[in-house]
């Protein structure tokens, strides 16, 4: 019974996280919402919002933050003082799949051909230092039949622990007259020893060759 209650607690925590993440992604779309993290096991509940325009979310009198705290506290069934929201600015928007997916959405909404919008996003992502990128656009793009079109460039992992460490995923959708268009963006981050633009964990297939002088050569 104790094991079942623990599993149920984890499931409830995951459901609350998904609901709050969906709410923030819609509420802060224009501010360049990227992602969020939440620690709901201890009070006060710590929520970190990563976005492009954090100064617009904070505002002068922090009224927006207080409004978000009120809604989140009501959903989590706690007091407003038990919810603490911190803002974290996105260092490199070219490596954020959520921001790039929303950029493609805005261009398609402005009647720019989807191929041009996707190619522009891929160019931005590669210039930001990504190892690889894949964009999937699904829906009624041309004609009455729905289809999925895939664009890719560079190296992109699809399985294993390195995929969990290096690949970031973002998704958004747009409602047009022809129907709903879905946009998925997958970005493989570069290796970064400072853990800013990418993970500081090296790839498992990285080969190190040592000579007699104990000098290290990375291939």
Automatic annotation (TrEMBL):
It comes from the Eukaryota. GO terms for biological process: translation. InterPro entries: KH_dom-like_a/b, KH_sf_prok-type, Ribosomal_S3_C_sf, Ribosomal_uS3, Ribosomal_uS3_C, Ribosomal_uS3_euk/arc. SUPFAM superfamilies: Prokaryotic type KH domain (KH-domain type II), Ribosomal protein S3 C-terminal domain. Keywords: Ribonucleoprotein, Ribosomal protein, RNA-binding. Pfam families: Ribosomal_S3_C (PF00189). Residues 104-187 form the Small ribosomal subunit protein uS3 C-terminal domain. GO terms for cellular component: cytosolic small ribosomal subunit; nucleus. Belongs to the universal ribosomal protein uS3 family. PANTHER family: 30S/40S RIBOSOMAL PROTEIN S3 (PTHR11760), SMALL RIBOSOMAL SUBUNIT PROTEIN US3 (PTHR11760:SF32). This is 40S ribosomal protein S3. It comes from Hamiltosporidium tvaerminnensis. The lineage of its organism: Eukaryota, Fungi, Fungi incertae sedis, Microsporidia, Dubosqiidae.
């Amino acid at each position: 019974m104790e094991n079942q209650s623990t599993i149920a607690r984890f499931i409830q925590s995951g459901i609350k996280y998904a609901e709050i993440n969906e709410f923030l992604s819609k509420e802060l779309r224009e501010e360049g919402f990227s992602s969020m993290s939440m620690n709901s096991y201890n009070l006060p509940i710590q929520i970190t919002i990563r976005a492009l325009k954090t100064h617009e979310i904070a505002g002068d009198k922090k009224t927006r933050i207080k409004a978000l705290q009120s809604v989140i506290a009501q959903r989590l069934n706690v007091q407003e003082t038990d919810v603490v929201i911190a803002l974290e600015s996105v260092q490199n928007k070219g490596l954020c799949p959520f921001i790039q997916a929303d950029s493609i959405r805005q261009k398609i909404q402005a009647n720019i051909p989807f191929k041009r919008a996707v190619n522009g996003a891929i160019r931005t992502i590669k210039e930001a230092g990504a190892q690889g990128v894949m964009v999937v656009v699904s829906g009624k793009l041309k004609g009455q039949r729905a289809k999925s079109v895939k664009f890719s460039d560079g190296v992109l992992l699809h399985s294993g622990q390195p995929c969990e460490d290096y690949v970031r995923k973002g998704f958004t959708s747009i409602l047009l007259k022809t129907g709903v268009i879905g946009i998925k963006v997958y970005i493989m981050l570069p290796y970064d020893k400072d853990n800013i633009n990418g993970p500081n964990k090296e790839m498992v297939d990285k080969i190190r060759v040592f000579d007699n002088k104990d000098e290290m050569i990375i291939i």
